[in-house]
Amino acid sequence: MRDRIFVHIAWTTRDRERTMDRRVAAFLVEALPIIARQERAVILEIGIVRTHLHLLVRLHPTTTIPRLMQRMKGGTSIVANRDGIATRELRWAKGYNIDSVNPRGLETVRLYIRNQALRHPDEAIPDWSPPHVASATSAESRL
Predict the structure, then answer these.
(1) In what side-by-side order are the strands of the sheet with 52-59?
(2) pLDDT digit string (tens) for 56-81?
(3) For residue 106, how many other CB atoms are within 10 A of its CB?
(4) What pLDDT digit, counting tens, does each position of 89-132 carry?
(5) What CA–CA distances, in Å, run from 43 to 98, 111, 126, 130, 135?
(6) What is the rounded distance in angstroms from the CA atom of residue 79 to the CA atom of residue 123?
(7) What phi and psi values does residue 28 have, to the nearest 5 degrees?
(8) DSSP-assigned beta bridge partners for residue 52
């Protein structure tokens, strides 16, 4: 039986600082799916603007959400800051928002996430559009 546990997760930068630029966004698109896979989850969609991000994630029944979130938030900020990916220090706000998603609502949530730059034009990352979720590449060795 295929796992059908879908969630929409969102979190912000600390104080909603505009710290996400093209380099940070590209790093997150590469790194977050790797972390998810290591925690038995799959990222189906990513939306990023300068102050926050949204994910559509399929979870395995044994995925521990607090561990997944700690690794996604803590791990990415450590690596982005340590490796000079972030030009301004990447700091995440405490907490996150998570909502379950009915499989029939997946396309609606996908579009909502994909269109974050249109929903928040003043927070859009200049000259960047979210590619499809990356596969495992060089980011895996950094995490």
Answers:
(1) 41-48, 52-59, 5-12, 97-101
(2) 999 999 999 999 999 999 999 999 99
(3) 17
(4) 999 999 999 999 999 999 999 999 999 988 998 999 988 877 66
(5) 14, 14, 24, 13, 10
(6) 23
(7) -65, -40
(8) 12
